[in-house]
Amino acid sequence: MKKIGFLSFGHWSPHPQSGTRSASEVLHQSIDLSVAAEEIGVDGAYFRVHHYARQLGSPFPLLAAIGAKTSTIEIGTGVIDMRYENPLYMAEDSAAADLISEGRLQLGVSRGSPEQVIDGWRYFGYDAPEGMTMADVARANTETYLKVIDGARFAEPNPRPMFPNPYAGPLGIEPQSPGLRRRIWWGAGSNATAVWAAQQGMNLMSSTLKDHESEEPFHVQQRKQIEAFRAAWKEAGHDFQPRVSVSRSIFALVNDEDRRYFGADRSSSDQIGQLDNGAAIFGRSYAAEPDQLIAELAEDEAIQAADTLLLTIPSQLGVDYNVRALGNILTMVAPGLGWR
């Protein structure tokens, strides 16, 4: 058995052929898609977060709205860039969204990926102190956030407050949402950051790209990253079992519409490229008839090692197409792999 969710980039474009022509449309369709996905048995609704782009940017209003309209589906991000976040404000927002959804938030955070602008965090009022990089800042912000949502009390109370304080001594951020601390995921781009995530007690979220750390295929490198994470988790001695997700572009070619969109997919093999910190490997996508998909996915070592699979979806194709595409994976592919 495997949890299967979708991961939406939340693109919108005024192009006449786009199914999401405005920010309003992509937000409302994201809610509608989550409701429909829950109805067909999808386990999770996850959303990318990017700034300065025609994509979903501020996740918590959307997550709260989805939480209010659904009852079972997990709701998450993949990922929030912690270079841009005030960890205390984020603690308030995430706790509120988690309480609205009654404990279904699965929040992916990370250092983030290359953005649309240069040093975009500076416009948000953030910068790295002397001797630190923004990657250091992202990890420090994450550590602060984890402590705060875990109930840390650190603020000196006013001796004459407007309202009586609920307890003596330092105060912490409110509201608190029990259990949220165990539902935070780190988006790891390397083996080393996967180990760091395990040491911090965060679940592992691994995407379709990572640092190119050997000459092995992407799925083998990613499987080894998962193994390094689990070994570090065991060594750290945490008192709960972690989760591991991987994301993939997977489409079952069932009719002419599917073949028109994905039948000539040119990303059917791994790609090597460059990111800010050096060489990166981008994992292949999958698009084939259901029986062929089953055979190909059975050979993907990282998918087999993970307990959660996030299917990246083309949000601009609209709700109806994406619900059908997700349903095809659930009914025609997942049973053949023992995931359902």
From TrEMBL:
One Pfam family matching this protein: Bac_luciferase
Molecular function as annotated in GO: oxidoreductase activity, acting on paired donors, with incorporation or reduction of molecular oxygen
Gene3D superfamilies: Luciferase-like domain
Luciferase-like domain location: 9-258
Domain of life where this protein originates: Bacteria
A cellular-component GO term for this protein: cytosol
InterPro entries attached to this UniProt entry: Bact_Lucif_Oxidored, Luciferase-like_dom, Luciferase-like_sf
Protein name listed in UniProt: LLM class flavin-dependent oxidoreductase
Organism listed in the record: Propioniciclava flava
Taxonomic placement: Bacteria, Bacillati, Actinomycetota, Actinomycetes, Propionibacteriales
